[in-house]
Amino acid sequence: MKPRTWLPAGLLCAMVVLCLVGPVFLPAFGEQDLANQFLPPLSRTGSGLHWLGTDALGRDLLSRMAQGGRLSLAVALVASLVAVVVGTLYGAVSGWFGGRLDAFLMRVVEILQSLPYMFLVIVLMALLGRNLIALFAALGLVQWLSIARVVRAQVLSLRSRDFVTASRSLGQEPWRIVLVHVLPSCLGVISVQATLAIPQIILQEAFLSFLGLNASEVSWGLLVAEGAQSMDLAPWLVAAPGVLLALTLGSLQFLGEAWRIRMDPRSGRDQ
Q1: Where are the beta strands (DSSP E) in 35-190?
Q2: Which of 140, 184, 249, 269 is deepest in the core (most CB within 10 A)?
């Protein structure tokens, strides 16, 4: 494993451990201590050591970052799953049937792709409400477009292969041919698209939280927004979650590119 792969993998694993295990050992993320506001990093109070200091309400910043990471990772995983399911089914139907149906479905994709992603997410959240289910659905339903186009292209190239022709000659149903024979051959490109979509989903969730459209009481975007209001007095409140968010996105992007090159070595040689 090359350093450019294991380094981001190690950083990502450390962040996952922090998000999953950190809240167990750190002070409660919602516990307020108004007597200890804006404490700098490595300050100690009666509730314990505050590694990254406290915020405007005396809450432990590291604990809130770990709790917010849980939401960001959950959103990324669930929304990417929604995008994969919707995009794969949509692209498979479009590529398999072709003709006018394919042309119509692809025009719909092109129209949706011409609209700003965040505009679609904001509209969907306004219609569905500000809750986690709406957030999962909104982010997932704007990420499926690129997956649908890739799956369609793969299905178009596979439906004329010999194994598909043999399945048809045996009298197998079209849906069975697609699910059992065609889609498994697309798993490589689907996994690459899903891996590259995860950092985009985390960034979009952080941006929504920064705008105040958060579906939880704590997230990385919300922490950055709160820290920006007090950055003159306590710059660590915006620097710490910002750095953690940047490291997470960078690690996921590097791993996504490494997986893409592994699945398609020619793309790595072309760069």
Answers
A1: 43-45, 48-50
A2: 140
